[in-house]
Amino acid sequence: MFTIEVLFHYSEDPTITRFVPRAHPSHPGLSPAVWAIDKQQAPMYFLPRDCPRIIFYKRPESTEEDINRFLGLGTARMVITIENRWYTRVRDAILYQYSFSPDSFYCLDHGAGYYLLHDPVEPIDVQPVGDLLARLSQEDIELRMTPSLSPLRDALLPSSLHVSMIRMRNATL
Q1: Average pLDDT, rounded, for the chain
Q2: What is the residue extent of each domain of the chain?
Q3: Which of 41-45, 76-80, 109-113 has the lowest mean pLDDT?
Q4: Which of 17, 68, 134, 160 has a CA between 20 and 30 Å from the CA of residue 153?
Q5: H or E stretch including 90?
Q6: In a 3-state reduction of DSSP, which class is residue 122?
Q7: Separation of alpha carbons 125 and 6, rounded Å
């Protein structure tokens, strides 16, 4: 395991001065929290907030069959798949990276890089992310596009790969 020096939160709003815990619609059993992500998994959020996406990558226990089927001949460390209809919005989005000290956060999921804090917190810095498509490529991410995420979701769920699905309630089904 590596040492976490900084955590991040991404937003299209550059004016947030204080993050207040909120309930998470995909995790109704969790107490309200401020969510942050580690540097390794941060590219999962280099997209507009509401953009549905499926992220997948190999784990040590992933099978060669799943690696070949879903990652193919690519060499990227992670694949992010979005729906075609989101391309223009991703291309044109202006996103901001908020930085936090990791001291008070706890890790909810090491594989996904999710960290939570149940108290209000002020960011230590905010910076524009820049060209999102360029940033994804700089982070060794393969971006794929498809008309619908549903077939991919159904195929990936039983696989041995790490799979994260974000904002799927906005996906075309």
Answers
A1: 94
A2: 7-170
A3: 109-113
A4: 134
A5: helix 87-92
A6: coil
A7: 10
Task: Give strand pairing partners of 96.
Answer: 11, 128
Give this prediction's pTM.
0.92
Nearest to 89 by CA among 153, 1, 167: 167
- Judge whether 41 and 107 are in contact, CB under 8 Å: no
Close Cβ partners of 157 (under 8 Å, ≥ 6 residues apart) = 163
Query: pLDDT, tens digit, for every residue of 1-29?
Result: 567 899 999 999 999 999 999 998 878 88
Look up tokens 């706890």; give the residue.
106
Cα separation, 145 vs 102, in Å, equals: 33
Going by their DSSP bridges, the two strands 162-166 and 53-57 should be labelled as: antiparallel
The token pair that represents 159 in the structure block: 């696989």
